[in-house]
Structures are given as structure tokens and as C-alpha cells.
Fold each of these.
Amino acid sequence: MPEFQRPRGTRDFGPEEMAKRRFVESNMRETASTFGFGEVMTPTFESTDLFIARSGEDIVNEMYAFEDKGGRNIALRPELTASVMRFYVNEMQSLPKPVKVFYFGNMFRYERPQAGRYREFFQFGAELIGAPSIEADAEVIALAMQSIKSLGMDDAVVRIGHLSILQSLFEDIGVPENQQVACRRLIDKQDYDGLKNLLAEISIDNSETLIQIIKIKGGKDAIAQAQELTSAGEDGFTYLADLLNRLEAYGFSNCTVDFGVARGLDYYTGMVFEIDAPSLGAEKQICGGGAYKLADLFGGQEVNSTGYAFGFDRIMLALENSGVEVPSQKLDAYILPIGDSARTAATEILMKLRNAGISSDMDLMGRNMSKAMKYANNIGSQKVIIIGQKELDEKSVTVRDMESGEQELVPISKILDYNFK
Ligand code: AMP
């Protein structure tokens, strides 16, 4: 057994996987740019207090938190919304509104690793700050939908809820304010028995309607279905109907509502949404987001914000499961000089190709022809360029197409005219 192992819950990514990840990442960046969002980057670690301010003391148990050599309490970021809002409050408040930003980066959470759940993982997220809420909510959900659409993932399901509906339902049956967060957490975990028990403990036994409503999912008719069961939460229902109409205008008519979307975190205020990739099984949630208020908590002026974070690693898994082709990196040409006399000419051709953007490599191992062919095949090179004495005499190279096996003599002076792509 090797002496050093990766820390639990972390992964190494080889070149082939990295090429795929970078492809998906740049696709998502491009989509965000077409929506007018600009990229931001913040530090990988922040003061622990920032995350405590956002999520409460308990978050410390879920983080990589430590004291640095200067005695400061530091945490590796478990998410990026808090950092972005700190950045906004410190430096972006006076910018014209709305502020539209996106980010990509690694996050750290001290949790029990399993398929699709890691201790170091990646999120691609966006935040829209300072626009009226319904416009911002529609724009942000549309960006999330467009991101997965342009990746070719067509089985993802977006479920949208509104916390004011839950709040009205809580008030309707008399759930005290100090128990509402605990109820939301149970709803978030779909732990309906736990919810019933908690409510029974505080002598609330008329929770049937609440439980019926949080199980409803569907299109516009689901809103009507829920409204038949309760007269509470009218504003929230109207809001969601309006939001679905707006998303339809964006071209996304397949969004659904789900009154059980509660998001575990306390700082969400209105609309909340999640996106699932059904092929992922237990860890199927690929995105979570909603409207929130954090700026004032961080010492800034209160401002509407809506954002989300995609679990990038789960997107990669979902793309693989649904058979979506993600191109991996291919080498255009592999150059094989035969004998030392050919090496200088081979090197010159190598750099000519590289300078022209043709990905190319050259034999560094002194392999003979058959071993070099095997190797070129192994690394997936599209062409092999052979330069021996015969070729040198003719100021040419032999280009072999690895798929068809066809060979062609190409003058060195015309090498860039050859179609390597
Ligand atoms: P959250 O910040 O908890 O709302 O998470 C947003 C998204 O990040 C989730 O929907 C998941 O796709 C992803 N995610 C959260 N935790 C992990 C983890 N430990 N490993 C991999 N992905 C995660």
C-alpha cells in the first residue's frame, strides 16, 4: 500500500476527466455571460464568523475551521454566497443595480462522504443583487435552466416553492415562530413523520392540510389544487403563478411548483427552488437556490438578492448517466523522428504545428515504429507524422491517419496546409 493516501472525501482528477470538467465549466461560464453575469472570485478561506453570521453556530461542526498562526478563526468556505455578499457589502454596494455575478470554485464541508457527496466539491453559482424580486427570481431560474439546457441535460426537473406559503400555513395552525425553522428543516428532508411528531409535541394536531400541501408537486394546476385545500398563503400562490408565466416567456414551460421546497437555511426569504437530476438516485439534487437577504446581516443596506449554486460534481455525474457526450481532449498529431538525424527537423515541425494551435507531441523515448504506433493509438492521437531519412531527402513527412490507416507524403513547406483537425 502506498504511504500517502488522499484525505477522505477528496478526489484526484486525471487529464481526461479534467478536459471534460473544463469543457462543462466553460459551457456554464459562457451561458452566464450571455445572460449578462460577470465572474467574481473570492478567497478560499474566510473568517469563521462570516459563516456563523449566515448560518448560526452549528455550522462550525460542518466546516474545516481552525485557528491560524496569528490566532484568527478561519474556515475553508463551505459555500460562496456568504463570501459574495461580503464582497458586495464591502465594495459593490454603490455600483449601478442590478449587480449580476457568477462564480466557480471548490467548497469544503466536513460531512460523511458517499456517492455524489464529498468533503471537497465544486459549485458553479450565480447571484443577482438589487433588482425587484419577481424579475430577479425569473432571470435567475432562467439562467439555471439555460445552463443545463445548453449542456444537453434534458431530464432535469426544477421545483419552485415559496416560503411565505409555508409561513402562512404555519401561522394558520399556530406553529410558534421559534419552531418554524425546525419545521422547515424537517420539510426540507421530507421527514413528514418527524414533522408530525414535532408538531404533536407542541400540541398541534391539525397538521393534515399542511402535510397534504407540502406533498403537492406539478404545473399551474398544482397551485389550484393547493388553493382548494387552504385559504392561507394567497400572496405566495399568486407569486408562483406569475413566476411560472414569466418563465414560460423565457421559453421554460416545464418548470414545476413544489410547496415542500423549504431549503434548510434560515436566510432564504421568499422564492426557493431546487433542480434534480433523476438519474442520480439519493443525491439527485444538482442545484439549490432562492431569494435571500444577507447584505444587512453583513453590515450593508438591505437589498433583494436571488441566487443559486449548482453542484458541479453532480452535474458531471448526471451528464455521464444520461449519456451526454462530453468531448475529452484529443491530440491532433504525434511526431515520430526515426533516428537522431531527423530529430531537429521533427522538433521544428512540432513547434510549427503547436504555434498554429495544432495539439502535437513528439516521441521522447526513442521508440521504434511499431511501438510508437501502439503508443500513439493509446493516447488517442488522430495522426502520426513520420520523419525518417527517406522523408528528409524529399523535404517531406509521412502523415498517417490513425483511423483509416491511410498515409500521405506531405512537403514540410506545406505542413500547415494539411487538415489536422
Ligand atoms: P447547498 O449550498 O447546500 O444549497 O448546495 C448546492 C448544491 O451543491 C447541491 O444541490 C448539491 O448539488 C451540491 N452539494 C452540496 N453539498 C455537496 C457535497 N458535499 N458534495 C457534492 N456536492 C454537494
Amino acid sequence: MKRDLISITDYSKEEYLKIMDLAAEFEANPNQDLLQGKVVASLFFEPSTRTRLSFETAISRLGARIIGIADPGSSSTSKGETLHDTIKMVSNYADLIVMRHPLEGAARYAAEVSHVPVINAGDGANQHPTQTLLDMYSIVKTQGTLDNLNIFMVGDLKYGRTVHSLLMAMSEFENPIFNFIAPPELQMPKEYKMFLREKGIRFFEHREFTDIISEADIIYMTRVQKERFSDPIEYEQVKNVYILRNAMLEKTKPNVKILHPLPRVNEIHTDVDKNQKAYYFEQARNGVFTREAIISHIMNLK
Ligand code: CP
């Protein structure tokens, strides 16, 4: 039976840990021709830099060929072809589909239509499970553990799909504490807070974080997701609500790392980039190894 990766909860804690181990193996030895002779379809119906390019790098390093859509305007989607028909076609051509789509639930639907595995590379404001696995790999590399961590999530917690997937995955580990820092318009949706309450996991909500920043092990900054706002005035009101600056990091723990799924707009000042606590560019690099690990796991290559 085929396995898809649509929501981070499709995988167990044991699978998360297996992917962390595989990612470390691929980091040590990235070029492994495990997928030689296979074809992977990379279907991006929404803009991407890191996810698409790191997936395509991972696929190349595994020895497979890539077919794909980087811009829906250049495909028959622009002529009105349905997602159903596109996926039906592509699953006749490729051995694996990696898909990003602006609609929540589109990846699950594609997985139902496709007879080859589908990996969700982000579906609207819903989930971004491969980002979460690379975030977890970045956390374990820098903290040495996924247990007992105080995780600050800052910015657009309403539309930011990466924080939704990350909190679900981290809730599988020992004793996490979440601090959610967002303006009222962009708070963590109720269903995710309910999820944490049901699991008995502590979380706290704040408007500001400068006076509590010294408690953080991970500061996960997010971009305000302009493309998800129906009202541009509402976006203008919140777009610069949090800007992390180097001076704010003076009283942080020695082990703290600043993560961000990127792209960054204004939410991390460039004066943070040279600080040893900034980890977002290394985090993006970890995406290649983690995506090699995910493909290897899903295609049962190791
Ligand atoms: N982190 C992330 O999903 O980046 P892209 O939108 O550039 O793929």
C-alpha cells in the first residue's frame, strides 16, 4: 500500500526519529543513487524558493529525474483543467508526486486521486509537514534533544502553516512548553489550542515577548502571510508587528536558536544574521538532507 505525507500526524514519533537519523546519514553522504530510474513530479501551484529547490536538489542527489510545474500559468491548469485531472495524468507519468497548492485540503485530495505517493509541500494555511521535519532536524542538531524545550512561536500564527505542523509534531516529545506571541488578529487557531489542551500540554499566549525572551530555547519567527489576507488594509496594520533585533538577544539563553521557515520580510532585522544564535540559513540547508530522508522513507529505499 502506498504511503503519503499530507499531515505531520500521518507519521508516528518513531517515524520522526527515523527521518532524523536518515537526514543525518544523508548530510554525511548526500549523493546516493537510490532512486535511479525513477521519475518524481514536482508540482508547485503556489510560489516557492526553498521547498521546490531543496526537493529538486534532494531528488537529483538521489539519482531520479524530475518533471514538473513551477508556475501554474505554464500548465493546463490555466486552461481550466481540474486538480483531479492533473493529478490523474501526472500519477501515470511519475513514481512520486511532491505538491504545493494554495487550497487547504488539496494535498489530501491529490493523494486520494493518485496511485503513486503524494508529499504535501504546503497546502494553504493548513500544513507543511516536510518543513516541520526539517525544523525538527534543526532543533535536534542544535539542542541535542527534542524533549523539554520551551518553544516561542512569533508572528502570524493564524495563517502560518509551519507553526501548525510543528506544534503537532513537538507535542509527541517530553514536556514541551509553547509560548505563542501574536496580535489578536493572528492568534493560533482554536483547533490547535484544543489539540494541545487535550494532550495536557502547556501553552501561553502573549502580545509581546521582550520581557520573557530569556526563557526560550527556540524562537520560531514567522512572516505575516500577505497572500492569505482578503483585506489588504488588515495586512498593512499587522505586517510589521514584530521585528526581532540583535539587541533583544542579549539576555537569551546560550543554547537559544532563532528559526524561521523563510522567506523573511521584516520580522528579523538583518543585524541578527551574524549572531551565533541565528540559525535560519542553516535550517534551510537542512531541508535538502531532510527531504532526501523523507523520500527515502516514503519510497522504502533503506
Ligand atoms: N519555507 C518555505 O516553505 O519556503 P518557500 O515558500 O520558499 O518554499
